[in-house]
Amino acid sequence: MTGALTRQMIADRLVGNDADLLVVTGLGGTAWDASRAGDRELTYYLWGGMGLAASMGLGLALSRPDRRVLVLTGDGEMLMGLGSLATVARAAPTNLAIVVVDNELYGETGGQMSHTAGACDLAAVARATGIADSRLVSDAAQLEDVAGALRTLGTERQGPVFAVVRVPGQLSGPPAELPPRDGTYLKHRFREALMGSAVLR
Amino acid sequence: MTAPVPLPVSTPVTWPDALYDTLKEVGIDQIGHVPDAGHARLIDRCEHDPGIAVTGLTSEEEGVGLAAGAWLGGQRAALLMQSSGLGNCINAIASLAEAGQFPLLMIITMRGEWGEFNPWQVPLGRATRDVLLAIDCRVLNVHRPDEVGDTALAAARLAFDSSQRVAMLLTQRLIGTKAFR
After folding, report:
1. pLDDT single digits (tens) A73-112
2. A201 located within any domain
3. How confident is the model at residue A1 (pLDDT cuts 50, 70, 90)?
4. What is the 3-state secondary structure (H, E, C) of chain A?
5. Residues of A in contact with B53 (CB under 8 A)
6. Homologous superfamily of the B15-175 domain (CATH)
7. Contact check, Cβ <8 Å, B72/A191
């Protein structure tokens, strides 16, 4: 597959057809995208706690080295947690991927420009913290490469995957049916799907 | 009324070992920390334990995300920080841990409350308890070495068995005041 990227293609391709993947999303756009790709028990949508998606993905990845973990977040959310990239690089889990949907905008607050609209290069930041496999994705073929890398998580890798998917100016609105917004419910359904109903007792 | 402790503490310090033993007893799998002198021995013991994954954080708030992620995956994490680091965590504790009713065990070394040398440590040290209570955390204070193990056990049960956000405050009187010469 080649050609131009739409932001919905990212969640559709990376989350929509990978039932085993453990997913943490950012707030707003990436939660909408992931929800539209198909609500699933093994996705934890953040509705708050901005800046924590990568850290949450790290805790999850360390707890389940036998599973593949994806953090799907936006540029604004990632910018708020830049330090967590250094922490991820240092911990170096091989089963974690962080994919940033970079529209260069704060989409939920009026479309203000983010730092990535200027000189800030998140892929370079991630590489500089020590995440060697840090990619810039600009077309559908490169997105396919990321999808392939997700399949190798935890097995054939030396460290985590970081990818910035460039979709400048592309906004995402909430889906007709919102993803669940009760964080406690999302937690319970995730844990039950992963470990069975015994964890609820 | 407990006996006054000399400043700085000059007796051998064993309470970090009691803390470590309790963390093992309650099944802690992960530790997140920003280095702190008061936690140095505990961090060292955890780093030498292959059964505990120790994650060095750039800022304490990352630890709240780390702990929530660990819980999603079926593990138990504890966060080690200094009282000044709590200030970095407030939105994370309220908007993630509290909103999702995640267990959260924070072991906090206090500054600014007992013979503090550095005035920059005083404001948040003085506010730590009130800030924690304002965001609905449970607060357990430890003043004496012989209270450390029991309090850690109670804090961990409250956090993991009752899904609470719990801060165990290791008072500066326990830790000893940092001395500069």
Report:
1. 999 999 999 999 999 999 999 999 999 999 999 999 999 9
2. no
3. very low
4. CCCCCCHHHHHHHHCCCCCCCEEEECCCHHHHHHHHCCCCCCEEECCCCCCCHHHHHHHHHHHCCCCCEEEEEEHHHHHHCHHHHHHHHHHCCCCEEEEEEECCEEHHHCCEECHHHCCCCHHHHHHHHCCCEEEEECCHHHHHHHHHHHHCCCCCCCCCEEEEEECCCCCCCCCCCCCCCCHHHHHHHHHHHHHCHHHHC
5. 62, 91
6. Thiamin diphosphate (ThDP)-binding fold, Pyr/PP domains (3.40.50.970)
7. yes
